[in-house]
Write a structure and sequence with these properties.
Eight copies of one chain form a homooctamer. Chain A has eleven helices and nine strands. By secondary structure, chain A is α/β, with parallel strands linked by helices.
Chain lengths: 251, 251, 251, 251, 251, 251, 251, 251
């Protein structure tokens, strides 16, 4: 039953051609979309600058460009993660305003100004090899309109460096903490600050690191109570939730 | 070197009894605590109403009471998790204002008024057996001064009930989602709202649920990007981070 | 001892050349195949349109073609799974009536009309990347003579779309539900319908998805009691069992 | 908005007190339950004899009795699994017509005649220790109105016994196959019949059986394509789905 | 201390140049090899036809040829496993009597006649993809001088074929049973015979087969008590132990 | 169809009351047991002294006694494993000739003389805590008629003790090697002897031993090619296969 | 062949009753123990104060006392781990000089003065619940004659406390670091010092800590290169190796 | 606040321009690095010859050369692990004194003489395939100034060879033991010596070796109490800690 049909039912009722009970019976079987439910969903995206995101891994440049083109029809912000320069070339053909972030391996397209969250998001990473995931988080948060400060190569085995950043870390509204190997960084940083710490385990390491399992388990068992965790290598998710936390609830 | 000793060094320098270089050399080896670092830490607790928390499992009532007594010397809020009535009796002897929450299996002691966060924290749980963990989250968040609304027995296999709560869920600033078995609830709720969802896997279930592993993995792999995860059965951590998200950054 | 030999034994007994005890002793050691057991097996295939299936992965086009040629000698329906265009070229040379299904990566050859099951099989999948496995299930079910309706890109994070399909899902005799990541879709769909749901976990995802383990465990622990599970990426098995369920027992 | 309120809206519209657009706007925000969605769900239970099931493990007899009492208000069939005689005593006080099945460790209450499926459900189990799970499956299927035939102690290491049952197994519309240890029974039986085989791994065994993991993995990797799997020890789920398969689609 | 030196010590003692205590003290610190321990080891190989084996995977043809050349200096039988034609070309240059077994991916060189065990070794495999491992077992056993009978493509889902082999299987002194996927074959065969069954899990399969884990666990949990297990894909080990079992203890 | 019935069929055919085709049709559907297949199985037990074994864990003394009584009707040797004195008391009431082996936690009943294998079975164990499993193996092998020599407390960390046993170990026809923790003993012993070594991992140990997993994996990956493995704590299986190896093939 | 026999051989040779070749032949087959190898082993214990250790878990007080009595015949130091007061009472009856350490759950008996290592061993632990394992390490090291300094409740979430200990930690020759949950402490301490850090994971924690697995993996993947690891809860091993490191090599 | 600023504060205090309290307040907030903490860290490297290490895997030759160039500015010893000839060519351009070790796959650059530890480090490996990891350990230890003796191809299945090395092994101050497959070597060697044994599991093997897991678990569960463990394939860590143990504590 289309919205048109719904109007017909109601008008028929008004005209006395249907009883009240008939109308109620019809309403009970309305398909959900016709009730504007889907519209609510689109509204959510447009109003809050929510990104539409494409997981680029395993898709051809053409497939990525086609999906992006469709997303841009109703979204002000589109992201492609785990992608490369070839996909960027394809996307630029349908969206010349697309930007490519090589370290983050992401494409971003924003149309219209983002909301302006006031707080700061700090992105901290442990080792050089963790930077791609950290950049995925940072670029995501920036695309959502946040101010982001990056602190890379901050390992727990070099406490002096970590401590020298203390003043700047406590200034953040939320901290994203990216680490592979033993994944101890979120616990240490969690103890230094009083804001949420989003821990991102990375698949960096070898041997008994098991592609990020050691870091993941370490973060889930953190002795710092302000640590929450996302999937291994999920920089996008961390950047996204950090943006939600930094954004004052307005609806 | 105590703070007293530090004063002596500086005064000796002022009196010309030490060279500038001597003073610098001494400062380089100052123990950290003497520099007031620990005070900063205590300050954090007092200013922000951060809880001191005791993991009660495996401790005797007497041990719990002794730890609580020590914590209350410098903290305005103390929580005991995974505890029971016997421990409560012991704690009440040293803190008559302690409260016991049987479903949450927690003891709380608050001294002084909490801060007043404006937003709402929703705590949703899937099955009856998940309620103790959900209550641990809810009581923790309430102890931190938050308004909390509980939605229990909201399983994904009964969508009609979940959907009837939609309006109330979108009113929350952050949602805590507690589920065992397949842990699908955070994904479904994450798709309905535009705020952070803190997923708490529980050890509820049997067989290939592996004491919460199935739920934990399900939540880490959520297709909803606004889901973050804490350890299995870690209601306290979820309630704590939810409170941090709900609390406007003020320092 | 061949069937011929069996006849000889019995005739010799009839002629009085063997005692009853001799015959009984011979019968006790009869090879099973000679008793028509294998024929029963072939009969099963021919009568019920059961497919012979070749797992194509790791086999050369020539090997696949040779196996298919042999199967077609006594089977009315042959399927090749996990295959490609090169194998199809080889098969077409020995079976010009073979069809190739690129999304499903399958080759099918049917000779003779299939049985005609009355019910409908719905194949639902969560993400774009799950489509190859969903197609393997759908093509298998169709090859067995079933009517199949496909519902792709129906994720649990977008409930409005799932709910808009409700009327069409309840029309199915059995539902195949294909999902990677957290594998929550079968639980949600299971709660909406009153028919068996065959859940197929896929290896889609990354990090703590562990190549389908998260989805598999989620499906095994489904809170919807009408969910059964097959191996990761086993679209063929799901399509096959769905066909058995949809087929009235006739022998 | 209650159904009452919905009537008011429609009547106000009929009386010309609301415009068509006003009515449409109100309908878009209707809570779902008010649209009769929940009723549809209850209808499902009543019409099809779907069971309401209580997982008894970890609940007191009083809790179980209270839940059962509530379920019986709108369900014609209630089951309690993983329960005992003490719970039965409590349940019988509120439902004197309740039956207890000691081997299955189940309580069943049926009110009104079940539907009458025509087919037969065979329940086969491998070892003596698998019988409680097999009985849970059999009692569940019987409670749903099915004819059930039990074949216990049919191990793959004793093929002669398995083969002697061949004729009776092929008579079934669906077979439930319960096995611990290596879980090989469903593969062997799957090869003998042309109907769906629902495999139930049990936690029977020791050492590298890992509480049912070996059996579960064996069944998921079955070389017989007609095998589907449920959770370890999930006799209820197997019996329930077997009933769905055996029940002709009627709506 | 070389054997020469040992002689010197004893002769010096005989000549009265060393006391008995001196000799005893020297003997206490003798390096083991000098006592002929190593010779004992070589003796073992020569006497019993024990193979020297090279694991070819990851070694260059030149490395393999060099190792084989060294082994042949003191061994009558050398095997190379997991190898290919290129390595065979290299080996043939230093051992023109080497033989290559393409299905088994092995090179064998035998010099001198093997012992002659009387019994028969049966090698049974489940699927086509298991044949390379089965051949590795068969070729190894043959190289050790055993009579080997091969039974391939004997899956548990096709019992009629398995049973037709019953008479020939019971004729074996030991059975090697090679299977991937659910690994059920050894349990079924173990129940048909009264000799040891050496089960070899293979990495054949996909999804929850986990590279042979499902088969390995199934075999370790076999309900047939005459089943022992070797490592995944370890055809060589199975063939070797089968040879030891088939060889009458003669020392 | 009973054997009686089979005779009737044949006699009817002889009398001309059935055609040849009728007889053949009847034979094709003969239940297997009626063909003496089960007798063959019983024959196997009686002829070769194969044990019937009851896994005692989780069974009541009365259940064990009842099963044993039934087994003794057609078996000359019955074993109960994982049992205790209470079960022994119950068994002795129905079989006064039963023997109890407290360290092995086994009950054995033998009627009639066993076969007399010529070789020796050595049972070696690593630590004190491994002795119950080692005894289960030793008592099983003895019950089957084998000569068994026990070597306990032979850890790889004390090589001098192991080496002092070298002469006696090489005298064995087959060696059972029982070890927990790292499970290194079979590898070391395997290198010292030229007979099959049956490795039995035990659940002895703690922490990362994971209830025998470390030992099991160590044994499966043994660098000694003459090592085969049975399930964790499966002393019975090891003793049984050792007996089969030690028993000359006679049928 | 006893040492006596060896003398006989040599004397016979001296007397000309045996040829040189005969003597050599006899020597080749000498049992190892007769060569004084075992004495070397005992020597090791006596000279270096190596402990004999009994793993008390699962042994009765009487068994423990009996083993200790035997050990004390040739060892100057005996330890019992994982024990209790009841075992202590039994041990004190045969060794009145035994000492009990309740937190460490250990019994120690030392006879004769230990060696006197010069360095200091620091034992650091993260949480209160880790203390029993830390004490097992500390008591073991002290029993071996080392000076031990304890630093308990030093979590990575409270860096200020850890840093205030910096001066005292760098004074140690080796550091034992005991931690459960995420096991991050060794990495942080490893970065602060330039001596070996022996990391001991504990089974403290819950949920995804998996009884010490998270801590174990974290420690194995430590980004501090001076970290080595022992088994979960293996305080004894850590204390023992720390003692070996602290002990100058003197032989 | 820079060191310059610190001087200004102190001089201002000396000049009477700041009160004592003002100075103390400033000191409390000093960034750590400004206090010379980082210098302490550099000091540690220069004084003790600690290496700076680059994990080469996944880095381009140019990246490696750039990092090495930066490290050499303040370190007397730089190592690159998991690298190759191409990286060596790049490094040699910026450090002509660099050395390449092909078996160890390492680049080393040393400037200035190392300290001279007195003891010997023995590096023992089990199989040929373990040599690269063993060489990584040996080259690391040598780069730190240690004398290293290599013992390769010393498997536990060939005890005679292991025992012939006994005298030379007991001469070592610390032993590095490298083994894949079952990882039994450290246990056996641990029982022969009275010094620490650092066990390095390798990813050598196949099947149930699981890339080093079997060896890792075996080593963690070693029955020799003097065994500690590092990560799978972590030759560098083993060589580094061995150097720390061999180096007398001098600060």
């Amino acid at each position: 039953m289309k919205a048109e049909a719904l109007r017909e039912v109601l008008l028929a009722f008004q005209r006395g051609e249907m009883t009240l009970e008939d109308v109620l019976a019809r309403l009970r079987h309305l398909p959900y979309e016709d009730l504007g439910f889907a519209k609510l969903d689109h509204h959510r995206h447009l109003r809050q600058g929510f990104p539409e995101v494409v997981f680029g891994h395993g898709k051809t440049p053409e497939q990525i460009a086609a999906i992006v083109a469709r997303l841009l029809e109703h979204s002000a912000l589109a992201l492609v993660t785990r992608t490369d320069e070839a996909a960027y070339a394809a996307v630029r053909r349908i969206a010349p305003d697309a930007a490519y972030h090589p370290q983050a391996r992401m494409i971003t397209i924003r149309r219209g100004a983002p909301s302006e969250p006031e707080g700061l998001i700090a992105v901290v990473s442990a080792g050089t090899a963790d930077i791609p995931v950290a950049e995925e988080a940072a670029v995501t948060a920036e695309a959502l309109g946040n101010r982001v400060e990056r602190f890379y190569d901050v390992g727990v085995a070099g406490l002096h460096r970590l401590l020298s950043l203390h003043e700047r870390l406590v200034a953040a509204r939320v901290i994203i903490c990216v680490a592979g190997m033993e994944g101890a960084l979120p616990s240490v940083i969690g103890g230094l600050v009083s804001v949420p710490v989003i821990a991102v385990p990375t698949s960096v390491g070898y041997g008994a690191g098991y592609g990020g399992v050691a870091a993941l388990l370490g973060m889930l068992n953190s002795c710092s109570a302000n640590v929450v965790v996302v999937n291994i290598d999920n920089g996008f998710g961390a950047g996204f939730v950090a943006g939600l936390i930094n954004q004052p609830k307005t609806h």
